[in-house]
Write a structure and sequence with these properties.
The complex is a heterodimer of chains A (376) and B (221). With 376 residues, chain A is of the alpha+beta class. Chain A contains ten helices and five strands. Chain A is 64% helix and 11% strand. Chain A has a five-stranded mixed sheet, with helices on one face. Chain A starts with a helix and ends in a 7-residue tail after the last strand. With 221 residues, chain B is α/β, with parallel strands linked by helices. Chain B has one domain: Rossmann fold (3-Layer(aba) Sandwich), CATH 3.40.50. In chain B, 47% of the residues lie in helices and 11% in strands. Chain B is built from nine helices and five strands. Chain B has a five-stranded parallel sheet, sandwiched between helices. In chain B, helix 3 packs across helix 5 and helix 5 packs across helix 6. At the A-B interface, strand 1, strand 2, strand 3 and strand 5 of A face helix 5, helix 6 and helix 7 of B.
Chain lengths: 376, 221
Amino acid sequence: MIDHTRQVTVVGFLRGLRIAILTVAVTILFGLTLPNLVARIDAPPGPAVQVACFLLLMAVAAADVVLVLRDRSWGRLRWPVLVLLLAVYLGFTLLLPADSVFTVDNWYFNSIGWFGVALLFDQPLLSFVGFLAGCVAVSVLPILVSGPGNGNDVVGLAITIVSIGGFQTLTATAAGALRQVAFSAALVSASAERTRTRRAVAQRVHLDRQSRYRDIATTAGPVLSGLADGSLDPGDPEVVRKCAIEAARMRRLFAENKDTGDKLSHELRACVDIAERRGVAVDLISQGNWRDLPREIRRALTDGPMQVLSTLSRNSRTARVTLIGTRDTVSVSVLADSDAPVPRLAETAGVRTTSIFDGERVWVEATWREAGWSQR
Amino acid sequence: MAGGRMVTAVILDDHPAIVAGVGAWCVTADPPIGLIDADGQISRLWTEPGGSADVVVFDLQLGGSPPLFRELERLAAAGRRVVVYSQRTDGATARQCIELGAFTYLTKAEGQHHLVPAIHAAAQDTPYTPPTLSGAFYADDAPDRPTLSVSERETLRAWFESDSKRLAAGKLRLSVKTVETYIERVRIKYANVGRPARTKSALLERAIQDGLIDPGDLVPR
């Protein structure tokens, strides 16, 4: 997530920067170079070479447009392209008369630097300085070859380096600074995001704990405080029954917070576990499929069965627990040896609970039907 | 077919303890059932003495092998009455076995109460639907499932949940006989949509004789 945030922020920052550099390069290419080229098309190194060089720069500019639009860097491809630009420039200057190298005839030099900035936007400043030094060296080459003509050459060289190279270097430096800012911004943003997530999780956990506490405070609280202050007799069968139900409720509450695929089965299993601890052989059988039901419905479905399973008498030997579901109906049923009927349960959350007692066995069935349900 | 003489069954199961247990139930059954052990080998279901047994008690999975659906289909196609006796409890497997022509489907957990009655019922070509199969019919959500009435569905569920026709009848305020009729009728409906097999025709024939269904109700698929 951090890497993702960093990437998004950095790309956002650098995209603007790249568009700016590209705009400068293209403006110079078409606004400055093209009129010069058209006006002096016959000047050395000749129309064919001039047009070919212009088309090369246009092609590189077009490729950069595509990359900027796709938020992609030049990557390793930049190096051969830079070498190509330099090599072409070398040919261009060698075809120029030595005294034209620092005149308007050498339009190639005016543009090439900006392409260096564009191609090296995400590289250390040193790479651009190196490229620029290469361009200057190529410019100086004809003078070295044919010897210094006059003082104008040296003056021209100095002016060109300061006016063109200086400006380009400045831009490249600014790009580097902006890149640093973008990275820091990405780090800060990722850190803020982490803090936000941590806070949201902590809040959620706190709310969950409060809600769980509320759930048992009203029912388990009085039983526990009654046992503590002696107002409830642990030997009283009714108190024992209440304790068993509360223990089952807590067990189900813990089961509710497990992140399992089938929550209803999982919670029902927690209820079955209670009966098995009391030595009752429980058959748990399920059939069909059911969707992920909300907690209120799951509770209403397991409430009746839970009461039966947690209060089975010592004489109970077996219990049959079933869970059956279709798209719109889910039923939980418990049939167990019992010597007492189960209190009636009110209909809640769309769940109807029925109970039958035939003197030996008690059968409790809780059925949820989707609102608007109709028989198939 | 089995009238007058002892009902015989051949059992295919790879667990000797299961075979011994089923053998004990068969000896004490009323009337007793003659059980032949196929010794975990499918071929012995086809060769004597297993080949002429009235009923085949068929474990769907031997060892770690995949379910033997093709073997089941071949047995059903040859007119054998197959009681599938499996540890698999999922509804899809149970329904597939019925579709392939099994006489009935029993889970191992149901064996003690339902295997002997199921063998007797199979020998007489009367339907037998144990609770798990009943639940599998109730929970069937296949598009081509047979159409069941509200009472039939409620009865299937009550029988699945209680494993007691008396309790199911009490809950639904029906007679035990009516509960039995509803469950049998569902089994006939499934036989009617299943593959053509002797099991199917025998069940349908018997159901018409008993007045359980009207021949006009049988709409071929």
